[in-house]
């Protein structure tokens, strides 16, 4: 299964505080372990939400909102995409991660939907419709 | 509830550490089977101690220390007289006072080599390919014999026996547990890659509706490939195979239709190709080429897969490049199927007549006698050359030969189009 591992933002990360050399080194070593264990698919750090934008949807209207955004604890400061056998394995690997922030912080693990999750709900007809929609979306 | 959680956490830690543990122990006791038992003993100790003391900070080193103590106890109990064992006991006793931290740093230094050496042992050419695959999945992948049996559509007793025999064969062969070097290393790497690709293809051949453990073999093989790439970062063909598997796996979701039948590459919905895997496959291919391995058999096959992966639409496919790659693949991996694919590539790049000329040279190969893609290729080239009545015969013959219903329908449609003169 694939999981998205989300490093939650803190006051420090939102202020654009760069990680210390020690943390960078520890993170580098940790990332190397992830690669060598064959589970790392992707991973990036995100700039503070002050440099981000949101698009709000309501009916046909689209409103662009500039960062920064208030609810710091709900914001994402970085992510990994991992291929693991199960959630327990993902949890164990996250426990081994050095604390990504100078102060208290949180990492959230979310399983990625896979085709097999839809297998029972998806009749061949619906699957094909789904396919056609994706194809159209891709062309747009 | 809490006890169950702790139990699960310990099992998970063990699963992550298991291969490294077995690798370290195997080098010490020079016996893969014994190493596996000792690792298991380490788990038993952890299951009784950790709920009381909490999960240690360095679980891998802790497990290793526990397993080593068990090894020592075992040797003492059986009072082995053989000199080898006496030496081993001395070695182990010398290490007795070492702290968990010492073991941890030693593990960090050696673990790459030890794990690589275990992979080489599990894939040793003294074993049959099937035995190598089963042992690799057991020792490195950590699958149970039951899971391996289901994955290979076999029964548990057969697989268990295969693994026991393999361990015995390895024991009798008196192998050194060192990573092979020089020329031998090259051959042994070949054997490892063959096993990993076999595991991958077993998963790739799985059909929809089968036990999910079968398609999961692709993931296991990719994981093994990535681990191997970390352990042997200078081996171009390791990256060639990794690239090939990642790019092929990127198409897994797109290659079956809603009814479960296989969809040919040119008909696949490319929006469903997995971009993450394509990106990682292309990076691995680049690495293989940078290491001077562009003409390795796996790297060339990966380069072919990459040509398709780069084309967002079928029409964007670079057939000239594909034709050139097949010329090179034919030189390093000659086979009638490669000849046939090469003819198809040349027909797409240089026209149907060129393809027909190349096909004339290979159509008598016994390996291709009942191989539907051969008459299908003939049909396609003849159709494109405007020789419709001849094309029709070949499409019908191809439709007769294939057991894939979707493909059969596709070929019969093409045959009908010949009759319509379209």
Count of individual domains of chain A: 1
CATH superfamily of chain A: Dimeric alpha+beta barrel
Structural class of chain B: mainly alpha
Q: Biggest interface pair, residues each? A: A-B, 26 and 27 residues
Number of strands of chain A: 6
Largest sheet of chain B: none
Would you count the extended β strands of chain B for me?
0
Q: Which regions of chain A contain 5 or more consecutive residues with pLDDT less than 50?
A: none
Strand content of chain A: 25-35%
Mean pLDDT of chain A: 87
Inertia-based shape of chain A: flat
Average pLDDT of chain B, to the nearest integer? 87
In terms of structural class, how would the helical and strand content of chain A be classed? alpha+beta
Number of helices in the DSSP assignment of chain B: 19
Query: How many strands, which pairing sense, and closed or not: the largest β-sheet of chain A?
Result: 4 strands, antiparallel
Low-confidence segments of chain B, ≥5 residues, pLDDT <50?
none
Helicity range of chain A: 25-40%
Protein name (chain B): RNA polymerase sigma factor
Domain RNA polymerase sigma-70 region (chain B): 19-79
Domain RNA polymerase sigma factor 70 region 4 type (chain B): 119-170
GO molecular function (chain B): DNA binding; sigma factor activity
Task: Describe what this molecule looks like in 3D.
- Chain A: Residues 1-115 form the YCII-related domain.
- Chain A: Belongs to the YciI family.
- The complex is a heterodimer of chains A (140) and B (422).
- Chain A has one domain (2-114): Dimeric alpha+beta barrel (Alpha-Beta Plaits, 2-Layer Sandwich).
- Chain A has helices spanning 11-14, 21-36, 87-95, 115-118, 124-139; strands spanning 2-8, 40-45, 53-58, 61-66, 76-83, 107-111.
- The longest helix of chain A has 16 residues, at 21-36.
- In chain A, strands 2-5-1-6 form a 4-stranded antiparallel β-sheet, with helices on one face.
- Chain A is built from 5 helices and 6 strands.
- Chain A has 140 residues and is α+β, with helices and mostly antiparallel strands.
- Chain B has 422 residues and is mostly helical.
- Among the domains of chain B are: 1-109; 368-422.
- Chain B is 72% helix and 0% strand.
- Chain B is built from 19 helices and no strands.
- In chain B, helix 7 crosses helix 8, helix 12 packs across helix 13 and helix 17 (373-384) packs antiparallel against helix 18 (388-401).
- Chain B is elongated.
- The model of chain B has no long low-confidence stretch (mean pLDDT 87).
- Chain A binds chain B through residues 35-39, 41-42, 81, 83, 85, 88-89, 91-93, 115-116, 124-125, 127-128, 131, 134-135, 137-138, and chain B through 8-9, 11-13, 15-16, 212, 219, 222-227, 230-231, 253, 258-259, 269-272, 276-277, 280.
